[in-house]
């Protein structure tokens, strides 16, 4: 097969559509059964598109995706301990995403650029926490997690502002980080203000779109290393 990524991509499309429809109609059981399959299918598609795991970028990508899969499994439960474990898995996954993308885009940034970026990221995280209404014991872990998400966005945007090769890829990575932040912000809204069918649907659409954009970005960087 000339394009081996097509088969896992088709399975991914079917699984994503089943999850989206289940979310939209309020069938939480079907959505929960399908969700853990999404990240492994994205990982298989990524590896197939890259022609294997020889590239360091793809290995880092797959680790981040598998940590995301573990996070998805933990977050099926609404209990505090599985929720904390899920958050930890996603936090670790974002570390690998930042190593993957930031390892290339951060090189050559000045201290002034880092200072401006840190101020913008801190203001963004603080604004999100205030708007969502996070407080109490959740404040510190959510602040740490939000900081890592904004660092992921900056990892993509740094490639844009530095004018690195494949600017569309760096914009794609930036958008992936923004959608990931939006998806997780909606999860926080669910946690503190109550769930709804439409909110759950938006969480999954933005989440899957974010993971796909980050995967495509990593594959593109691998092909142009």
Q: If you had to describe this structure to a student in words, what would you say it looks like?
A:
- The protein is 83% helix and 0% strand.
- The longest helix is centred in the last third of the chain and has 27 residues, at 167-193.
- The protein has helices at residues 6-25, 28-50, 56-74, 80-105, 111-132, 139-161, 167-193, 197-223.
- It is mainly alpha-helical and 225 residues long.
- α1 runs antiparallel to α2 (28-50).
- The chain is built from 8 helices and no strands.
- The chain has one domain.
- The two termini are 24 Å apart.
Quick rundown:
The chain is mainly α. The chain contains 8 helices and no strands.
Order of helices and strands: HHHHHHHH
Largest beta-sheet characterization = none
Q: Please tally the helical runs, counting DSSP H or I stretches of 4 or more residues.
A: 8
Query: How much helix, percentage-wise, in residues?
Result: over 70%
What is the overall shape? Answer: globular
């Amino acid at each position: 097969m000339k394009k081996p990524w097509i088969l896992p991509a088709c399975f991914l499309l079917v699984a994503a559509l089943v999850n989206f429809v289940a979310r939209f109609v309020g069938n939480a059981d079907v959505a929960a059964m399908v969700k853990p399959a999404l990240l492994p299918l994205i990982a298989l598609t990524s590896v197939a598109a890259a022609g294997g795991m020889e590239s360091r970028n793809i290995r880092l990508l797959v680790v981040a995706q598998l940590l995301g899969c573990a996070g998805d499994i933990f977050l099926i439960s609404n209990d505090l301990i599985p929720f904390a474990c899920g958050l930890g898995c996603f936090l670790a996954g974002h570390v690998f995403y930042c190593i993957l993308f930031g390892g290339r885009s951060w090189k050559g940034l000045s201290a002034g650029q880092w200072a401006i970026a840190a101020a913008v990221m801190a203001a963004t995280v603080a604004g999100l926490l205030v708007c969502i209404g996070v407080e109490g014991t959740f404040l510190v872990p959510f602040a740490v997690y939000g900081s890592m998400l904004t660092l992921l966005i900056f990892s993509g945007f740094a490639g844009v502002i530095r004018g690195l090769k494949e600017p569309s890829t760096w914009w794609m990575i930036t958008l992936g980080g923004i959608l990931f932040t939006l998806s997780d912000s909606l999860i926080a809204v669910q946690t503190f203000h109550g769930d709804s069918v439409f909110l759950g649907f938006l969480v999954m659409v933005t989440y899957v779109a974010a993971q796909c954009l980050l995967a495509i970005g990593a594959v593109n960087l691998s092909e142009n290393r």
